[in-house]
Design goal:
This protein has 312 residues and is mostly helical. The protein has 16 helices and 2 strands. It has a two-stranded parallel ribbon. Keywords: Transferase.
Length: 312
């Protein structure tokens, strides 16, 4: 499931992130238990499966019993699923979850504190594992700027309770994102009981780009899931496309060029600002500071350091 907390932020956007964390944790817990009634608090009673945020990115929601147009064995294009599977009842989400699958995966970006998830990590009925994906803050900033109008609601929530000028919103939001990412990693390494360390893995986006199959294999081993030949082919094809893809659409693209697009698109002034406000996170995750525009444009100058302890 893709970012179910989008619905919480959409409904309760007048509240700051610290309080929203509690509602999001309750939602996540319910989803992991296949109880989709939790969405009743955030969505209209008259809802179809298509009212769930980015439901079409889930192969489980594009195949039986959630949709009978495709086979369970198909790897289904996101846009095709959206065309043929949108009108199924919302109840099919819970039906598919309860009766069909042994593992549930949630992708979420709206947690700013790992301690919020302690109760879920300690819940013996869940066997929760956390894969923490980070990305070069300069690339994150460039990505956010591309869709800044679409993220304005989220940005307002992130900055609620903070002081500053609206003209500086984008950098202030990045500063909070970077600080939270660093704190999550530090908490995972030094703040949680040692018995839970094996439940957490940090992974850099750029390392995936360099070795998609190798990193995917390690992720599947971490999750104790089979890494099938069909999945390997899909990953190979998705990361070696010719374009850079569409925003919010999972499609084949040139992963390497996508990962370093910020180096050719952003003005160095913006890069310098992001490096300044995200210096702690960049040092922690092994992202190198670029000193000038010449280094920025020269793609032979590496922007990363070797992997850190705790990374794959």
């Amino acid at each position: 499931m893709m970012e179910p907390a989008w619905h919480v932020w959409g409904k309760m956007g007048h509240i700051n992130t610290d309080i929203l964390h509690m509602a999001i944790r309750d939602m996540i817990r319910s989803v992991f238990h296949c109880d989709m009634s939790v969405f009743d608090a955030y969505m209209s009673p008259k809802k179809n499966k298509s009212n769930l945020f980015q439901w079409e990115t889930s192969r489980a929601l594009c195949s039986p019993p959630a949709c009978y147009y495709f086979s369970r064995n198909d790897i289904i294009p996101q846009l095709s699923c959206k065309v043929f599977c949108a009108k199924y009842p919302f109840e099919t989400i819970q039906k598919a979850c309860k009766k069909t699958y042994n593992h549930i995966v949630i992708k979420e970006v709206r947690f700013f504190d790992l301690k919020v998830l302690y109760p879920l990590l300690q819940d013996p009925s869940l066997n929760l594992k956390i894969l923490h994906l980070v990305r070069d803050p300069r690339a994150v900033y460039q990505s956010r700027m591309k869709v800044s109008s679409m993220l304005s609601h989220d940005t307002n929530i992130i900055l609620r309770g903070t002081k500053g000028n609206k003209s500086d919103f984008s950098f202030r939001a990045m500063e909070k994102v970077c600080k939270s990412q660093a704190q999550i990693f530090e908490t995972a390494m030094f703040g949680i009981p040692s018995k839970l360390h094996k439940r957490y893995m940090l992974l850099r986006y750029e390392d995936i780009v360099q070795d998609p199959l190798g990193k995917a294999k390690q992720v599947y081993e971490f999750a104790k899931l089979p890494f099938t030949p069909k999945l390997k082919d899909w990953i190979h094809n998705m990361t070696r496309g010719k374009g850079r893809g569409q925003t919010f659409v999972i499609s084949s693209r040139d992963a390497l060029n996508t990962s370093r697009a910020w180096r050719t698109v952003l003005p160095f002034e913006s890069i310098h600002k992001v490096q300044s406000i995200c210096s702690e996170a960049m040092a922690l995750f092994g992202y190198k500071i670029l000193r000038n525009a010449k280094q920025q444009k020269d793609l032979s100058v590496d922007s990363m350091l070797p992997m850190l302890k705790g990374q794959v």
